[in-house]
């Protein structure tokens, strides 16, 4: 399998030696588990690009499934083609298995973990439980000009703190010291 000289230089710059005929790249080069390269104004995963260079063009409905256990391997001989409609028995980035009950496939054919989506929704709901406008972070005291304690950090940003909460905190610190 021969590549253009420019691409070979780029690939050899990223390659890390691995056993068992794996082609592995430094982990910091990966984005969401894949190295993305740009050729002919198109973004493409490196493992798909290498597979197409070795075995010919793939239709958009075909997905590549890794046959080896090396997560960062892009050796085209370690992949096989599968239909996008069949969910793969892999895990999402948080370790949840892609199963029929836990996977949603969007219009582009990209799989999404339902458990992760539910966790994201829960975090957003929890973040929305912020104090009422005009009240301190603990949602106890109304912020008024008399109860506002502005302070400037090292970068010159001004922060506003509830003066009552600040006094209570200082009282507690003095009592424990």
Q: Helical stretch count? A: 4
The total beta strand count reads: 10
Shape: elongated
**Head-to-tail CA distance between termini:** 71 Å
Which class do the helix and strand fractions yield? alpha+beta
If you compute it from the alpha carbons, what radius of gyration comes out, rounded to the nearest whole angstrom?
Answer: 26 Å
Note the beta-strand portion.
15-25%
- State the helicity in percent bands: 25-40%
Encode the helix/strand succession as letters: HEEEEHEEEEHEEH
Largest sheet: 2 strands, antiparallel
In terms of quaternary structure, what is this? single chain
Structure keywords:
4 helices; two-stranded antiparallel ribbon; 21% strand; elongated; 177 residues; 3 domains; alpha+beta; 10 strands; single chain
Describe, in short, the structure shown:
The chain has 177 residues and is α+β, with helices and mostly antiparallel strands. The chain has four helices and ten strands.
Question: Please, could you describe this protein's structure?
Answer:
The protein has 177 residues and is of the alpha+beta class. It folds into three domains: 1-86, no CATH class; 90-129, no CATH class; 131-177, no CATH class. The protein is built from four helices and ten strands. Strand 3 (36-39) and strand 4 (42-45) form a beta hairpin. The longest helix is centred in the last third of the chain and has 14 residues, at 114-127. It is elongated and about 75 Å long. The relative contact order is 0.08. The model has no long low-confidence stretch (mean pLDDT 77).
């Amino acid at each position: 399998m021969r590549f253009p000289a420019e691409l070979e230089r780029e690939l050899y710059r990223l390659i890390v030696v691995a056993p068992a005929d794996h082609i592995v790249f430094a982990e910091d080069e990966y984005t969401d588990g894949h190295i993305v390269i740009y050729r002919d104004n198109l973004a493409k995963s490196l493992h798909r690009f290498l597979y197409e260079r070795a075995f010919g063009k793939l239709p958009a409905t075909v997905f590549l499934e890794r046959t080896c256990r090396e997560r960062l391997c892009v050796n085209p001989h370690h992949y096989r083609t599968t239909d996008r409609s069949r969910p793969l028995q892999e895990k999402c980035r948080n370790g949840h298995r892609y199963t029929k009950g836990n996977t949603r496939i969007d219009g582009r054919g990209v799989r999404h973990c339902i458990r992760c989506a539910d966790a994201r929704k829960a975090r957003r709901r929890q973040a929305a439980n912020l104090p009422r406008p005009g009240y301190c972070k603990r949602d106890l005291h109304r912020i008024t000009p008399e109860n506002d304690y502005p302070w400037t950090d090292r970068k010159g940003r001004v922060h506003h703190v509830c003066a009552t909460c600040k006094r209570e905190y200082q009282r507690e610190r003095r009592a424990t010291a």
